[in-house]
Amino acid sequence: MGDGPRRFVKSRTPREAATGEGRINLLLEGFWRQEIVPVHDILRSIDLVPSFHLEGLREIVYLPEFAQAAAAYPCPVMPHFEPKGEFVQRERRIFVYAFDSPALLFQMLYHEIGHYVFYLVVGSRVKKHWVTQLFPGSGCVTPYASVNAQEDFAETYAFYLRDPDFLERESPEKYAFMHNEVFSGRPGTLKERAGGVPR
Prior knowledge:
Layout: E1 6-8, H1 14-19, E2 26-29, H2 39-47, H3 51-54, E3 59-62, H4 67-71, E4 85-88, E5 93-96, H5 102-120, H6 124-137, H7 149-162, H8 164-170, H9 172-182, E6 193-194, E7 197-198
C-alpha cells in the first residue's frame, strides 16, 4: 500500500491558484500498514474537502495499536459505542484507530475533519446558530449525532460529503446550512485568520 508517510498536496481550483490559496501541508501517516483502503483512495477522498477546511490541520495518522486503549473510553451517552478515531484539537491532528470497511474509514475521516472545521475554521456566529437553533430544532442523521451539537455537526458534515442527496432529503435545513454557511467559504462564515491559518 505504500512505504511510509505521505505528504498530501491538495489540488487547487483555478480560483485558488489565482489567489495563492489552497496550498495544504498535511501529512498522512501509517495508512500503508492496512490493506482495506488503497492510500490513493484516501488521498482522493481528502481532495474532495475544500482547501480552506484543511488549512492548519497537521496530520492524519493511522494508529491501530491504540484501538484497544481507545475502546476503554466509550461514549457515556452510548456505552456500546467504541471510538474508532478522534480529532485532538491542541495538536491539530486526527488519529484513526480502527476500521473494517472503506465506508467506515471515509465516514470517520470526514467526521473528524468536521470536528476540525467546527472548532477551528467556522466563525462563532456559524457555531452559535448550529448549537442554539439547528441542533435542538431538527432531527439528527445518525443516533450518534444526537449525543451533542458538536457530534451532530461532524456527522452532518460527513454526510454532506459522502451522501449529499440523503442529507438533503432527510434534513433540508441542515443541508442548506452546510451548503450556505460551512462550504461557501465566504469570509463572514470563517474565523479570523492570522497568516492564512485559522486561529
